[in-house]
Amino acid sequence: MNSLFCRHNRFTADCPICSKGTVLDPARQATRAQRPSSSSRGRSPAATQKMARVVAGPYASAGPYEDDEGDSYEVRLEKVPGGVRLAEWSAGQIRRTAPVLAAGDLGTLLLTTRERSLLSEADSEALLEAATTEPSDGPDGHPFGTSRGRTGDMQEELRVEPLGEGRVRIGRWILRPGADWELQHAPVMLPAKRYAEAIRAAARAGLLH
User: In sequence order, which ranges of the chain are alpha helices (DSSP H)?
Assistant: First the structure.
C-alpha cells in the first residue's frame, strides 16, 4: 500500500508540492468543477438556428413528384426580395437543385399564383400570358426557352429545357470566361420578367404543349 505521508513528512493531500497535478490537487478539482458537462456542451445558438431556420412565405406549389432516387418533393413559387423564387422542397426543407416539374403543371402553378395574389397583377399576367403563347411554325434555333442576362464578366441564362417524360427543368446557367456553360444546382431567384421571357420562348418552341 502507498504511504499516506510524502517525502516532506506531510500528508500527501496536504502537501502543495506532492499533490500538485494529481487528483488530490485542489486547484485541479476546482477547474474540473467549472468545466461544463458534455450534456450542456453542444452546437452554438447560431449554428442551431442556422440548421433549423427555414424561411418560407405564401406560395403556390406543383407536385408532388419523385426524383431519380425515389425521394418525393414539390416545386414552390414564392415572392422573395427582389423577385421570384422557384425551388424544390422536400420534408419542409428547400433543396439545392434546379427545380424540375411536369410541363403540364406549369400553367396551373401560375394560375394559383394569380389566385393567391402572390405577385403583382402585372407580373402574374405577364407569366400567364407567356405560358399560353402559341407554338411558332418554324424552329427558333434553341432546344429550350431562354432569357439572357449578365453577371459581372459572366454571361448567364435562365433556361426552360425539356428532360423527357413531359418534364422541364427551370435552371440558371452561367458562362465563365474561357469555360463552357455550367448549370447552377440551386433554386432560381430572379425578377418575374426573366421567368416570363424564358417561359414564352419555351412555349413558342412547343415545349409546354
Answer: 26-34, 45-52, 106-115, 121-131, 192-204
